[in-house]
Amino acid sequence: MEKTKQGVPSVVPRHVAIIMDGNNRWAKKRLLPGVAGHKAGVDAVRAVIEVCAEAKVEVLTLFAFSSENWQRPAEEVGALMELFFTALRREARRLNENNISLRIIGDRSRFHPELQAAMREAEALTAGSNRFILQIAANYGGQWDIAQAAQRLAREVQAGHLRPEDITPELLQPCLATGDLPLPDLCIRTGGEHRISNFLLWQLAYAELYFSDLFWPDFKHEAMRTALADFASRQRRFGKTSEQVEAGARA
């Protein structure tokens, strides 16, 4: 595997998506309340952002709160919402100073109006930044995303602007929450679990999957660099044979 002079792999994913798992188990192992793990996870977010910035990744999408997470204990959900609100207010200025644009995807309707306002303010503050995009998936589910894209196309059909037979994967993809961004090249999940848990179901069709046994608060700079190095060592075939990919690279 080739590396640049700075030690960054020469083949870097344009879009990295991460399922940040293991916060509760990290806290439980230390006899701490679950929210302590989520608070500790903020440092891991900063570390991963720094590595992605140095590697020149274009988009980083973090799965912060799934549509299924509302089923967790009310105390934990409330603490998560408070942490999210505080982090938005505190980190948005830092992101803007580092030329990082913040986007939030998911169904915002269930969040408190004050939190929705904080989301809009953070996005507006960082809107002019172009170093790379940090995308937070909050109250997000891959099935919800595909359904809302289908609804958008159904309304076009209902209005007479589109025929059902005209609907193709290429037409649906821009209607997804990430529709104007490159598809994820690499999906990382921490915490030792091996599933994608309703995250970016459509978008991950050809992403490379990387699983780490580290709990999210322990997934820092070196762990992220190791994941990027592993990605650089893989051959991405997209349905082709190895020989076809190699012949295309030589052409």
Automatic annotation (TrEMBL):
Indicate the family of this protein.
Belongs to the UPP synthase family.
Q: What's the name of the protein?
A: Ditrans,polycis-undecaprenyl-diphosphate synthase ((2E,6E)-farnesyl-diphosphate specific)
Task: Tell me the active site.
Answer: D21, N69
User: Does this entry carry the keyword Cell wall biogenesis/degradation?
Assistant: yes
A cellular component term, taken from the record's GO annotations: cytosol
- Residues annotated as binding Mg(2+) are D21, E208
Q: Which organism is it from?
A: Pseudomonas brassicae
Q: Which cofactor does it need?
A: Mg(2+)
